[in-house]
Fold:
Amino acid sequence: MSDSLVSSFPALSSMTALWRARYGTQPPAAPALPESPVARGLMTHRSVRGFSASALPDGVLEAAVAAAQSASTSSNLQGWSVIAVRDADRRARLAKIAGDQDFIAQAPLFLAWVADLSRLDHVGQAHGRDLPGVDCLDTFLAAVMDTAFAAQNAAAAFESYGLGIVYVGAVRNRPEAIAAELGLPARTVALFGMSVGYPDRQRPTAIKPRLPQHAVLHAERYDSAAANDPAVIAAYDERLRAARTAQGSPGRSWSESVLARLGDVSALHGRERLPEALRGLGFVLGQA
Ligand SMILES: Cc1cc2nc3c(=O)[nH]c(=O)nc-3n(C[C@H](O)[C@H](O)[C@H](O)COP(=O)(O)O)c2cc1C
Structure:
């Protein structure tokens, strides 16, 4: 088994094998990586875009949402909601809206992760109070962060049951259309979706290489030279290109992807107008 195709079952892969698959290097000799089943599970992650039709076992969604609700949350505001979409017709419509991504229709479950300030508004109304703090940009950011932490806890929980997931940022291509399809109230926005299901074993997915750890982990103070070392980036470019080619994807380097994604805002497929869309959905974003 090649490094990048280490088993998708964490129990079958060592910390060392997972490190090698992620970074293409041996882990540091000392200190050794302390064994952790949770860390192994997280390091086993790969996005899945080919799903079998099998439904999720009963109770898995509820366990994953309990994991999501167990995440830390800014000031315990819990400014998020999640919408579970199982209906095949609705998933097909969502697939169209979210960049024509077929796996959304294929996977038995689609979760829309929603930053939700509307519930906080209702608390104010129930007490006859205006809550100007809801309009502050920081409150919106807190809701965005809380939604992401919750979703990632759920993702880890799903993966621990042998399920595969892929996030779907393309719901932000057309936020108003998603809001209409899901019946979202004012001051809520679907930040991203998540398709969930059993991976199609005919289409195995590999662990995707990441930047070397020393490019992102700084000691005490930010180290620009380490973060942007051209030789390190060039080596990662080639590693990622090879990994993509091996998966049958266009053999693009990381730098080429960055340029393609951010070199022209049209590559954001509508997300470049997000501030306008958010205001239309009732968010004030600090401009009270
Ligand atoms: C917020 C977010 C949105 C994403 N949106 C999409 C998407 O719309 N379509 C897709 O195929 N992958 C999407 N992804 C998956 C990323 O492409 C993927 O995580 C990244 O390439 C790293 O690959 P890996 O998850 O297999 O390690 C998204 C990931 C995140 C975190």
Notes: Residues 45-47, 49, 101, 166-170, 192, 208 surround flavin mononucleotide (CB under 6 Å). The chain has three domains: 1-44, 60-202, 211-269. The mean pLDDT is 95. The CA atoms of residues 215 and 229 lie 8 Å apart.
